[in-house]
Each structure stands twice: as C-alpha cells, then as structure tokens.
C-alpha cells in the first residue's frame, strides 16, 4: 500500500484546487499571524507563520522569536498570533 501512495500515484499529487478553496483551507487552520508596520500603521494578516516569514524575507524561527518576545522586528514590525475558534 505504501508503494501505491508514492509519487504520481499519491491521491493529492497534481491536484489543482481553485484559489477560493485554498483560501478556505488556509483560513480554517486555526492560527493566523498579524504583522503591523508601526511606521505606517498598516496591518497585514497572513495564514501562517511561514507565509509571514516569507513576506518579511526572514526565517520561521525569527518570526517565532518575535512573536514570543513581542518586540518589533527590525524595530518596525509588530508580529502577533491570531487564534481562531474552530467549530
């Protein structure tokens, strides 16, 4: 059975989902990241810490550290977690 699920035989391999479906999946994951630019006051919401790290051009570990410390990243960006209630 494990051989049948490898590579091209895997049930999710090559599936192209509509963007709307992908967004619903991301939103339902339960945790989002809010990044606020303290200089401009603009706030962006990301579906994951990984996405926030990519947008800030930094590592996931750096995003985690700044979430915990509540200090502004690069003296400018406040990063925090938004928890969602999943029903």
Structure description:
This protein is an alpha+beta fold. It has a domain at 30-87: Arc Repressor Mutant, subunit A, CATH 1.10.10. The protein is built from three helices and three strands. It has a three-stranded antiparallel sheet. A hairpin with a 5-residue loop joins strand 1 and strand 2 (43-46). Helix 2 crosses helix 3 (60-69). The model has no long low-confidence stretch (mean pLDDT 82).
Major pleated sheet: 3 strands, antiparallel
Structural class: alpha+beta
CATH class of the domain at 30-87: Mainly Alpha
Distance between the termini: 33 Å
- Pick out the low-confidence regions: none
Shape: elongated
Query: How large is the radius of gyration?
Result: 17 Å
Q: What do the pLDDT scores average to? A: 82
Helix-strand pattern, N to C? HEEHHE
The residue fraction in helices comes out at: 25-40%
Provide a short characterization of the protein structure.
The chain has 87 residues and is an alpha+beta fold.
Features:
single chain, about 90 residues, Arc Repressor Mutant, subunit A, 3 helices
Tell me the layout of helices and strands.
Elements: H1 19-27, E1 31-37, E2 43-46, H2 49-55, H3 60-69, E3 77-83
Antiparallel strand pairs: 1-2, 1-3
Helix pairs in contact: 2-3
């Amino acid at each position: 059975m494990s051989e049948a699920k490898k590579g091209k035989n895997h049930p999710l391999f090559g599936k192209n989902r509509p963007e709307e479906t992908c967004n619903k999946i991301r939103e339902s994951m339960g945790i989002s990241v809010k990044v606020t630019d303290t200089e401009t006051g603009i706030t962006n919401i990301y579906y994951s810490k990984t996405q926030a790290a990519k947008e800030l051009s930094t590592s996931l570990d750096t995003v985690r550290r700044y979430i915990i410390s509540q200090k502004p990243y690069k003296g400018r960006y406040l990063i925090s977690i938004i928890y969602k209630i999943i029903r």
